[in-house]
Design goal:
Radius of gyration: 19 Å
InterPro entries: ABA2-like, NAD(P)-bd_dom_sf, SDR_fam
Keywords: Oxidoreductase
Organism: Canavalia gladiata (Sword bean)
Structural class: alpha/beta
Protein name: Xanthoxin dehydrogenase
Order of helices and strands: HHHEHEHEHEHEHEHHE
Shape: globular
Number of strands: 7
Family: Belongs to the short-chain dehydrogenases/reductases (SDR) family.
């Protein structure tokens, strides 16, 4: 049914995990407490929209699904009836998500470093082996890298790491999802980009370049796979205060105050005031693109930014 790929030994798989993938556990707990409140609020306000499952019977693979935006996508997909495989390097956090959902039958986890093609290929095969097919892949795993604003001081090793995860990781997902979806003549490939894919000057060079690359890949792969009935899109959110936002800081500086500072910075520079972008908002955009509601949408970059990229921030006429 599909090509067999030699399985890597578990210890080799874990050794391949790069240091920059690891998030401070205390920050994760702090963010999770805040996120759970948002999940509860949004769940009560969107009961009507969730009453009809939009992914019933679908099989999805979500990379980087152990926390942050990825976790919200997993939770929302589960609510809408999908069977999900979480592929992440954060084993403990991934297993915690499954435990909190209380559904080990329809939600599975496996260790996966998206920079390693065999890992991603194995994740796709794992999802097919567990659930019979693959309808949706969400290439969510990514890092921001160090916030260096002086090109003369950019560490090229760090630059390569960002591109390896943010671009090669996405391409690996596209390539191996296509391997399953082309014979099926259907499927939805969704990747996470950023508002940095639409503007310059709002992120580090490596991060901005990598997210522009995600949009370029999305359009080109959509052009190729359209004849097979496969839709390829990406989502570009505005800044969100997740653990990723402070991951570049030394461990002792990844505090709740640092998170609050980032949250205030994002809020003060947002175009849409009075509303804070959450991981659930991004998950809803991904759900739309994954569902049949978006059955004729492909090659699109869905920007979820409250109008931020529509504004000329150098002029600020209306501020």
């Amino acid at each position: 049914m599909h090509a067999k790929v030699p399985l890597m030994k578990e210890n080799q798989r874990k050794k391949a995990t790069a240091e920059h993938h690891t998030f401070d556990k205390e920050i994760y707990k702090q963010v999770t407490r805040k996120t759970e409140k948002v999940h509860t609020t949004m769940s009560s306000s969107s009961t009507a929209s969730n009453s009809i499952p939009r992914l019933l019977g679908k099989v999805a693979l979500v990379t980087g699904g152990a926390n942050g935006i990825g976790e919200s996508i997993v939770r929302l997909f589960h609510t809408h009836g999908a069977k999900i495989c979480i592929a992440d390097v954060q084993d403990n956090l991934g297993k915690q998500v499954i435990e909190s959902l209380g559904d080990e039958t329809n939600v599975q986890f496996l260790h996966c470093d998206v920079t390693i093609e065999d890992d991603v290929s194995h994740a796709v095969d794992f999802a097919v082996a567990k659930f019979g097919t693959l309808d949706i892949i969400v290439n969510n795993a990514g890092i921001s890298g160090s916030p260096c604003s002086d090109i003369r001081n950019v560490d090229l090793t760090e630059f390569d790491k960002v591109f390896s995860i943010n671009v090669k990781g996405v391409f690996h997902g596209m390539k191996h999802a296509a391997r399953i979806m082309i014979p099926n003549k259907k499927g939805s490939i969704i990747s996470l980009a950023s508002v940095a894919s639409a503007l310059g000057g709002i992120g580090p060079h490596a991060y901005t370049g990598s997210k522009h690359a995600v949009v370029g890949l999305t359009k080109n792969v959509a052009a190729e796979l359209g004849k097979h009935g496969i839709r390829v899109n990406c989502v570009s959110p505005y800044g969100i205060a997740t653990a990723l936002a402070v991951a570049h800081l030394p461990e002792d500086e990844r505090t709740e105050d640092a998170m609050a500072g980032f949250r205030n910075f994002v809020a003060n520079n947002a175009n849409l005031q009075g509303v804070e972008l959450t991981t659930d908002d991004v998950a809803n955009a991904v759900l739309f693109l994954a569902s049949d509601d978006a059955r004729y949408i492909s090659g699109d970059n869905l920007i979820v930014d409250g109008g931020f990229t529509s504004v000329n921030h150098s002029l600020r006429v209306f501020r």
